[in-house]
Each structure stands twice: as C-alpha cells, then as structure tokens.
Amino acid sequence: MAGFIFKRLLQAIFVVLAVTLIVSFAIRLSGDPAVMMVGAGSVTEQDLQNIRQALGLERPFFVQYFSFLQGILTGDFGRSFMGGTPVSMLIARALPATLLLAFASLITSILLSVPLGIYAAVHRGRWQDQMIRILSLVGLSFPNFWLAIMLVLLFSIVLGILPPSGMEGPESFVMPALTMAVILTATNVRLVRTSMLETLSQQYIMVARSKGLRDRVVLYKHALRNSAIPLVTYIGLQFGGLIGGIVIVERVFNWPGMGTLAFDAISNRDYPVLQGTITVLALFIILINLLIDIAYGLIDPRIRTE
C-alpha cells in the first residue's frame, strides 16, 4: 500500500509541475503588465523598463518560474502588481466563498437528484420515467453561463425577489447554487436511476419484499444504501470538477470567489494573482483525485497493482 501511495504522490507532483509551468508560460503571452499599469499615457521605454525591473519581470522566465515554485512551498505567492497586496491574502479572502458555493451546489444537487432518480427507477418505462430522463437531457444541454443569466432575468429583474449579484446573505446563494446544481443534477439523476435499477433486481430486495416490508423501507433502507456507493464515488470526482468549473458562474453573479479574482487578474495582467489562483484551484482538484485514488486502493486491493 505504501508503494501505491508513493506512486500516486509522484504523479500528483508531476501534474502540479506541469500545470504551473503551462500557466506561467501562457499568462505571459497575454501582454505586458508594465504597459497595462501606465495606461495609454506617453511614457518612454526606460520608464517601462524600470517598472519591469521593479516587478521582477526582467529576469529570465525559468528564474521567475522556479522562484514561484519556492514560494508555493511556503505559501508565498508573491504580491499583486496592482496595489502590492500579498496574493496569499487575496486567495484567503476568496477561497472560502468559492468552497461555500461549491458545497451549496453539491448539496442542492444531491437533494434533487436522489429522489428524482429513485422515482424514475420505481416507475421505469412509464411516462414519469420518460419525463425525468428528458428533463435531465435538457439540463445537460444548458450552458451554465446562459442559465445563470436567465435566472437573473427571472428572479431579480422580473420577480425582484433575489439579489442579482454579490454575497450578502443566504438568499444570495440561491441562484449561483441552483445554476451549478442543475448541471450536476442532470448527470446524477441518471446515475441514481441506473444504480437503483440494478439494486432493485437483486435477490435480497425480493426477499425483503416477500417479508412484507413496506416499499419505502425497501427503497430507502435497503436499496438506496447499496446503490449509493457509486454515487458517493462519483460525487467525490464531481466536486473536483465543480471547483474548477464554478469560475464562470462566479463572474456572472459577481461572486467574491476565486473565479472573480482570476478574471480581474486576467484583465489587469496581474501575473502573481493569476498564477496563485490557478495553482490553488489545481491543487484542490489534484488533492481530491489523490484522496479518491487512495480510497480506491484501500477498498479494492486489485487497483494497487495498476
């Protein structure tokens, strides 16, 4: 088991190095931060060179990159080009908002998908099952940014019952969480339905029904407990993807999270903030996948040999 964990750790380290290297190189293709900082005013090349030197941009790329890697080990991502605020402080403010929204979206998806999936499995082949499957397909077809805009138009502009943006109270979670939950629910409903259909065909379910147990007890106490195993596994993988995919929704709702921080950094050519934001998001996704891999190895010894 120790060798299996060590191999997965090496793979995770390699992914971190690859992600940070690609990000560090790509963001430098977006433009010169020195020009962005001085604006359209008349400045000399010497003025721009002085700004680059003050920001440390005159050094070779790999010198800057290895300096960034050293900072990761100590939690020091440098300082923002715009204002000089430590990047770690900006991330510490934004990360909780992103995690709260991700958890709210995931919980909302579970509360919607589990009952709908069970209901579809129980009514297999009937119009109720067909309707739920059609709705899940429609949910998968919605781009999350389009759905977010439609929710703002309905609940904020037409009905005026929810705040259109910001994070000011529990009601501000409704539209962002629902936007992400619709996409997740569309997938989870199909997974719950398939897993429940397989479980309901097992012999122990037939025995439970032959004993006269009520359908509710059979479904929720016996069938759901066993069919939840693949769902729990998939939710772990889903959460990692959710952290990375939530940035667009944050921008639409002006949510003070990592997505908004990253978009502002892109607009300002703020290399340290963008590097730090993407690196932290990538580390979360890699960590979640690593924990799932280790859990698989503990549950199924055959995976350790792969």
Task: Provide a descriptive summary of the structure in words.
- The structure is a single chain.
- 77% of the residues lie in helices and 0% in strands.
- It has 306 residues and is mostly helical.
- It is elongated.
- The mean pLDDT is 77.
Describe the structure in brief:
By secondary structure, the chain is mostly helical.
Question: What structural class results from the helix and strand content?
Answer: mainly alpha
Q: Quick one: how many beta strands?
A: 0
Which spans of ≥5 residues are poorly predicted at pLDDT below 50? none
Overall shape = elongated
Estimate percent helicity.
Answer: over 70%
Helix-strand sequence: HHHHHHHHHHHHH
Oligomeric state of this protein = single chain
Which helices and strands appear, and what pairs or packs with what?
Elements: H1 2-27, H2 33-38, H3 45-55, H4 61-74, H5 87-122, H6 127-141, H7 144-158, H8 174-200, H9 203-210, H10 215-245, H11 247-252, H12 258-268, H13 271-299
Helix pairs in contact: 1-13, 5-6, 5-8, 5-10, 5-12, 5-13, 6-8, 7-8, 8-10, 10-13, 12-13
Question: Which descriptors would you attach to this protein?
Answer:
306 residues; mainly alpha; 13 helices
